[in-house]
Every structure is written in C-alpha cells, then in structure tokens.
Amino acid sequence: MTGIALGCIADDFTGATDLANNLVRAGLRVVQTIGVPRRPVRDADAVVIALKSRTAPVAEAVSASLGAATWLQAQGARCLYFKVCSTFDSTHKGNIGPVAEALADLVGARFVPVAPAFPANGRTVFQGHLFVGDQLLSESPMRTHPLTPMTDANLMRVLQPQLASRRVGLVARQHLAGGAAAVHERAGNLAEQGVQMAIVDTVEQPDLAVLAAAVAQGNWPLVVAGSGLAIELPGAMGLKRHTQADALPATDGARAIVSGSCSAATNAQVAAFMARGGSAFAIDGLRLAAGADALVDEALAWAAAHLGAQPVLFYATAQAETVRSVQQALGVERAGELIEQALARIARGLVDRGVRQLVVAGGETSGACVKALGIEQLRIGAQIDPGVPWCHADPPGLRIALKSGNFGGTDFFHKAFATT
Ligand code: ADP
C-alpha cells in the first residue's frame, strides 16, 4: 500500500458507506472495510473502517476505535476522521465523547472540531444547537429513539458529560464568517481557556468549507464529524481529485435483489419492481419458522430456473400489519433473525450460482449478507441514489449495493441495474 491521506473510522456500517460515498464524490479513491482490514488495502486515498461501535459498551467502542486508528496511522493517514451520526446519536455515557477523547490522546490533538451537521440532509447546527429540518433535535423523532434518545439539542451540553478530562466549547457562525484564520484564532482562544474540543456551527455547506480549510491549514490531526465535511476536506487538504475515482472493475453475471427492509421506501421499491414485470420470490416469516432449510432450498431452486437476462428479487419486505402479525407469532427478535439469516443464505446461494450484481435492501439485512458472503473490503463506486453507491467486493468478485431501508427513489432497483 502506498499510503493513505485520510483515515476514517465510522461508528456504524451505513454511516461508513454514507461517508465513503461523499469522499468518492470529492474525487478520492475509497475502500470501506468491515472492521480493521486483515489484508492490505490497495489503490486508495482514503480508507473508511466501519465499526459497530455506536451503541456498544464504552470500553469496547474505545478499544475498537483505537485499533482502527492505529492501523490507519500505520498506513500513513495524516488526518483521522471519526464519523458520527448527523443526529449525534449517543447517550450521557458515550460513545462519541470517550472515543473522541481516546483518539485525541492517540494523535496528540490539541484542538478537536466536532461538526455533525450535513445541511444537504437538513441537519444544521446553530449556536451549538442541532436542528433536524426545522425542528430542534430534542423535538424531532430522535427524541424517542429506542437506543439513543436525543432529548437535548444543545450539543455542548450533550457532549460535556461524555468526556473524562476535556472541556467543550463552541466555534460559532460568527467565527466561521471570518474564514479559516478566524477559526484558528477562536481555537487558540478556546485552548487558552483550557477548552480542547468544540462544537462547530454549520448553517450552510460553505461553513464546512471554512472548517475544512482550517483543519487543512492547521494540520489538525483529528476531526469528529458527520459525512458533510467529507465533501470539503479532500480539496482543502490538496488531495488529488481522480476523475475516475468511482470506477469499479467490470462484472459480468446474473443480477439479483435481496430485500429484508420493511420501510415505506422499500415497500414502494418492491412494488415498483413487480409492477414493471420483475420476477420475485416471497420469503414468508411463518413458513421460515416451520422449516428454514426447505424454504431457502425452494428459493434457490427457483433462482436456478429464473436467473438470466433479467434481475430477480427475493423479498421478505411487507407492510406493517403483516410484519406485526409475524412478530406476534414469532417474537420480534426471532422473526428478524430468522429472516435475516434466510436472506443471507439466499444471497450466498445466489453468488454461488453466478450472480455478480447484487442489491441488498435493509441495514441489518445488509450486515447479515455481507457476513454470509465473507466480504471484508468494499471499493466504493458511483452513487445510484443519494447515500447509496455501487461497491465492488473481491472476493467474491461481486458488484454490490447496500441500501439502508429508507434510502432510494421508488424506481431504485431498476435504476441500480441501469447505472452499472
Ligand atoms: P431497515 O434498513 O429498513 O431498518 P433492516 O434490514 O435493518 O431494514 O431491518 C428490517 C428487519 O425486519 C430485519 O431484521 C428483517 O429480518 C425484519 N423483517 C423483514 N421482513 C419481515 C417480515 N415480513 N416480518 C417480520 N420481520 C421482517
């Protein structure tokens, strides 16, 4: 490996893809890895290590993040990018604060900017308060999130109790208005007051361009950010813009979709695929419970007869009332697990039968399929719809798109295969 410039650590899988997608759009060649890579990563300007650390126990999240950071440093990364959710998903224990602090200690950062905003997706920060569209974070649906309820929109107040030794300040809009020099002056003033970490206001994307310039000019070794900063940072760091950054190796083989998401968007996508005459095989949770092996075998026998010129779909995707009745019969966890495992086995079987272009719908479903396919690295290609790029995984020599439930337009499946 020739050395990477930007080393990224994402606290969940789809967050990693979102970040990688923006880095590719900024002209970098990007490889996303599932955990710390065991094999060398080649031809990449940035590596995004996807962890599952957002809601893991604090010590586990810190240790996994330090492991990733150490590997990235060894590959030459001069800036570490700790990617967090644009709604700052965390609890009073962490994990954003403890991980950020451990990384800051590792790289010897005197000042760490914290910029979760992504204005294009309606996430903005003003006077340190996070907004989701026109709602304060604490008044948005995030306030009742099952794992990380966000009941305070003031990010200084959210972050401070998560930190062991550092104090949190604010780089406000008025500082950003003065450009990178004014941001440096503000950072210097904060440091004099013993404040080593600061929430950075972001009302519009150009605010992130100013922050990126400050990071690059100051050689700051660590940023904590959502994916919005990734659009600005490569240019500010003077990294070469590759015109073919999204080029992927050609793949030739059958095409398939595996869908385990029950989101409104995915339901509409499945319906649209079938309305266009696409062949589809339904996976019924209750039938699975009665005999998973038989249904998976039946699905793969059907695949053998139908794989060919047109893409085929395998779906457990269902409307809310069907999902509820399956969950009542099997229990929420058992239903989810049974269906994820069956879809993952089908994905594996499809690849064994010659599928070389695969779309997976659903975050958890994607995780299960990636694992079943033994995928450790993904080269990130062109975006199909915002936040969902085609990727290439080798092994097994597969083009794959991993779509989190709510993403993508109604015609996503058709569009995906039209853009390979
Ligand atoms: P999303 O990204 O939309 O949240 P996920 O794949 O993360 O999608 O989650 C969907 C969950 O719903 C998975 O655990 C999946 O196994 C489960 N599931 C899919 N179809 C059904 C169904 N028909 N009944 C019950 N659970 C289902």
Task: Please give a handful of descriptors for the protein shown.
alpha/beta, Molybdenum Cofactor Biosythetic Enzyme, Chain A, binds adenosine-5'-diphosphate, 420 residues, three-stranded antiparallel sheet, 15-stranded mixed sheet, Rossmann fold
Explain the overall architecture.
The chain is α/β, with parallel strands linked by helices. The chain has two domains: 6-236, 3-Layer(aba) Sandwich (Rossmann fold); 254-418, Molybdenum Cofactor Biosythetic Enzyme, Chain A (3-Layer(aba) Sandwich). Helices cover 39% and strands 21% of the residues. It has 15 helices and 18 strands. Strands 9-10-5-11-4-1-3-2-16-17-18-15-12-14-13 form a 15-stranded mixed beta sheet, with helices on both faces. Strands 6-7-8 form a three-stranded antiparallel beta sheet, with no helix packed on it. Adenosine-5'-diphosphate (ADP) is lined by residues 260-263, 266, 285, 316-318, 322-323, 326-327, 335-336, 339-340, 362-365, 404-405.
Topology:
Elements: E1 6-10, H1 13-25, E2 30-34, E3 46-50, H2 58-74, E4 79-83, H3 96-107, E5 112-115, E6 123-126, E7 129-132, E8 135-136, H4 155-159, E9 168-171, H5 173-176, H6 179-192, E10 197-200, H7 205-217, E11 222-225, H8 233-236, E12 254-259, H9 264-275, E13 279-282, H10 285-290, H11 292-306, E14 312-315, H12 320-330, H13 332-352, E15 355-361, H14 363-372, E16 377-385, E17 388-393, E18 398-403, H15 412-418
Parallel strand pairs: 1-3, 1-4, 2-3, 4-11, 5-10, 5-11, 9-10, 12-14, 12-15, 13-14, 15-18
Antiparallel strand pairs: 2-16, 6-7, 7-8, 16-17, 17-18
Helix pairs in contact: 2-3, 6-7, 11-13, 12-13, 13-14
Bound molecules: adenosine-5'-diphosphate.
Adenosine-5'-diphosphate (ADP) binds at residues 260-263, 266, 285, 316-318, 322-323, 326-327, 335-336, 339-340, 362-365, 404-405.
